[in-house]
Hints:
Distance between the termini: 22 Å
CATH architecture: 3-Layer(aba) Sandwich
Oligomer: single chain
Bound molecules: adenosine-5'-diphosphate, magnesium ion
Largest sheet: 6 strands, mixed
Amino acid sequence: MITLTQLEKIHNHGAKNEFVALRGINLSIERGECVVFKGVSGSGKSTLLSLIGGMSKPSHGSILIDNLPIAKLPDDKVSHFRLTTIGFIFQSFNLIDDLSVRENILTPTICLNISEEERESRFQRAAEFANITNKSSTRAKDLSGGEKQRCAIARSLINNPTLIIADEPTANLDQRNSLYFIETMQKLKALGKTILIATHDEIFEHHVLVDRIIHLEYGEII
Ligand SMILES: Nc1ncnc2c1ncn2[C@@H]1O[C@H](COP(=O)(O)OP(=O)(O)O)[C@@H](O)[C@H]1O
Ligand SMILES: [Mg+2]
């Protein structure tokens, strides 16, 4: 599903403070795989996920997702690809505090030309899957950490993505909620989703969810 070839990311390219965050990354990921990226803080995990997620462009190299060269697409095409193919889950949840759970979950549908019926059915499906339906009208800022993550999971699923990208998803969760997060990822994997997780949480070590652990060090795969 994903092929990375000679991928390199240089932050502040050409400037005095330029920094090579990733270099020489070659990697293939199969559809339906769950891959964990490990490495100390600063090793390039978030940079790699943001490139695969089409949120930033590489300095060199290519990224193919479903045969689409996403680094070469114009921004509007990448945005559409991102909205319809990828679900993002972040460490700090990235919810909009003053919006309700329902409004947060629906934000990735705003730019899509879909009917109200379709929007409603997507909402019901995603909220039920993530077990957050009972908090639909609660404002995001009034949720517990575990509920925030469930809301973020529902939002990531709203457009039925084939690829889930989670950056340090359990860093702000207790053990119980972390295990619940993993259970939810197992259900998504059973549906054939491809799942990429950046983490240094030991909880993912030797877990049946995880097919492969890839170690990053100073921007390289070791
Ligand atoms: N926008 C940026 N500008 C300059 N340097 C950056 C930027 N983003 C990340 N970096 C640097 O790139 C390196 C890798 O960062 P990151 O991918 O966030 O690592 P990780 O997620 O593994 O902690 C770090 O040294 C970080 O300081
Ligand atoms: Mg990071």
